[in-house]
Amino acid sequence: MPHLLLNNGVSIPQIGFGLWRNTDEQECKNSIKWALTTGYRHFDDAQVYDNEQHLGAAIKESAVPRSDLFITTKISRANMWGTEVIPSFRESLKKLQMDYVDLLLLHFPVTECRDMSWRRLEEIYKAGEAKAIGVSNYTVKHLQQMKAKFKVTPAVNQVEMSIALQQPELVEYCRKEGIIVEAYTPLAEGVFLKNPIIEQIAKKYDKTTAQVMLRWCIDYGVVVLTKSSNKERIKENFDIFDFKLDNSDMSKLRTLDSGFRTNWDPTYIA
Ligand SMILES: NC(=O)c1ccc[n+]([C@@H]2O[C@H](COP(=O)([O-])OP(=O)(O)OC[C@H]3O[C@@H](n4cnc5c(N)ncnc54)[C@H](OP(=O)(O)O)[C@@H]3O)[C@@H](O)[C@H]2O)c1
User: Fold this and answer.
1) What is the rounded CA–CA span in Å between residue 216 and residue 195?
2) Is the distance from the beta carbon of residue 209 to the nearest atom of ligand 1 less than 6 Å?
3) Closest CA to 134 of 110, 160, 108
4) Separation of CA 82 and ligand 1 centre (Å)
5) Could you list the pLDDT tens digit for every one of the 270 residues in the chain?
6) Domains (ranges, CATH) in the chain?
7) For ligand 1, atom 18, which residue shows the shortest CA distance?
């Protein structure tokens, strides 16, 4: 499994197991156990996913040492008001049964409170309770505003990204500023799994279209986050490191960038 280096030298596995929409305790713990057995070492959680406690418990029950794992959580919109950030983070650590996370993100660029929340994240980072800090759903405009105000550059910006939503300007800006991009919803809710161009490329490598969509993120140079509660699909999604999309495939896939979003669009947030 390849790794990328964050701007403070922390190494991040390029594939992460997402935990959104995985609240049922047994289903969630099973999926985490299958993911660990498959080889995933990076887990992407959030306060609002309501399953940090399941992640903590599943890890404790596994034989995988904490030091081998890369754990992310995110401060929810509701907890981004200055005084709530640190107490809510302590609560997350308690649920995770950990004394640090590898990456702590602000989940949304909430206009009224994102600056004060970032100051709290800087404090958590300085205390060593988060090995890296970053943001999610930030546009270039939001990142430029941060750059003018703060010393600590976000290590990561986690955004919706897929073959159908390539966001080249955002990727270019982040690259220039040393911010690693993480792609969420890389399968675009399944809408492109029967696309003929992706099908043709999948056939060439004897892979599924889902695997091509995930591998595209790897070859695009971003971290890919993928979620499944199904044992076979958990394995399928991890089995993307024995092939590489060549330049002609990447060019064909570039033509599928239609700006298609399954989620909300942060462009309209001041
Ligand atoms: N920061 C944010 O605002 C934000 C927003 C959204 C997501 N995220 C993060 O990003 C992670 C990934 O996003 P996502 O959950 O939307 O992921 P995704 O991997 O794009 O899609 C997951 C969906 O696709 C299905 N699926 C998974 N593998 C498949 C395959 N090989 N073939 C066909 N269908 C497949 C899953 O169903 P089954 O479970 O039945 O397999 C599930 O319904 C989230 O879990 C979360 O950690 C962050």
Assistant:
1) 14
2) no
3) 108
4) 30
5) 999 999 999 999 999 999 999 999 999 999 999 999 999 999 999 999 999 999 999 999 999 999 999 999 999 999 998 799 999 999 999 999 999 999 999 999 999 999 999 999 999 999 999 999 999 999 999 999 999 999 899 999 999 999 999 999 999 999 999 999 999 999 999 999 999 999 999 999 999 999 999 999 999 999 999 999 999 999 999 999 999 999 999 999 999 999 999 999 999 999
6) 3-190+221-231 (3.20.20.100)
7) 185
Encoded tokens for 227: 């979620």
Hey, CA dihedral for 137, 140, 145, 148, is it positive or negative?
A: positive
**What is the secondary structure of 192-217 as a DSSP string?**
TTT-HHHHHHHHHHT--HHHHHHHHH
Determine contact, residues 204/212, Cβ cutoff 8 Å.
no
Spatial distance between the Cα atoms of 44 and 186, rounded to a whole number of angstroms: 14
Ligand 1 centroid to Cα of residue 18, in Å, is 7
Closest CA to 159 of 109, 111, 195: 109
Q: Which two tokens stand for residue 14?
A: 């390029």
Encode burial over 41-63: b for 16+ CB neighbours within 10 A, e otherwise.
bbbbbbbbbebbbbbbbbbeeee
